[in-house]
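Practice record 12: protein with coenzyme A.
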Amino acid sequence: MPLNFSTATVGIACPEDAPRLAAIDACSNSHPWGEADFIAAFQAGHLCLTARDDAAEVIGFALGRALPDEAELLLIAVDPERRREGVGRLLLSTLEARLAESGARVMHLEVRASNHAAQRFYAALGYSVSGRRPGYYPAGAHASMREDAILMTRSLAMERTS
Ligand SMILES: CC(C)(COP(=O)(O)OP(=O)(O)OC[C@H]1O[C@@H](n2cnc3c(N)ncnc32)[C@H](O)[C@@H]1OP(=O)(O)O)[C@@H](O)C(=O)NCCC(=O)NCCS
């Protein structure tokens, strides 16, 4: 069921969205996913939501996977031209609700230690820091350049209806 919020409508992504998802990720992350990565995620059964504007153009996406009793946010990005309009909040809260309905009780995520904007976004949505993974991310052209991951979690108890 599509969910409308402000000027965005959330729905399930389809393989035809992969080029647009990769384009948004390319201008959002230093090590972006390609089209093939998104197709592989669809084939693996992960849940990918899109936010579309009034013209049905994808302006953001959130990708998560359900684990037994838990869930993991794999990726989230909003078109740079459409940030700070509540699109990320809409995507993540909808993803949380869908994964909670599937039985997840807690959402986990990892974020680059240098990505303070995303950490503030997650904190605003109720996430707390739960740990740190040293050298988790590649951080440059050379393989030896690494960056820590900050681990964050949020209970999904409020999203569960049963
Ligand atoms: C993180 C991201 C998805 C947030 O999407 P968004 O649509 O801009 O977020 P929202 O408008 O829903 O913001 C919700 C709240 O989060 C916080 N927030 C969001 N972006 C923020 C920023 N850059 N700085 C500080 N707080 C921020 C604010 O509290 C905001 O509420 P407010 O605008 O009423 O103050 C977006 O900035 C993005 O695509 N970043 C690049 C990709 C990325 O870093 N992804 C996460 C990788 S782990």
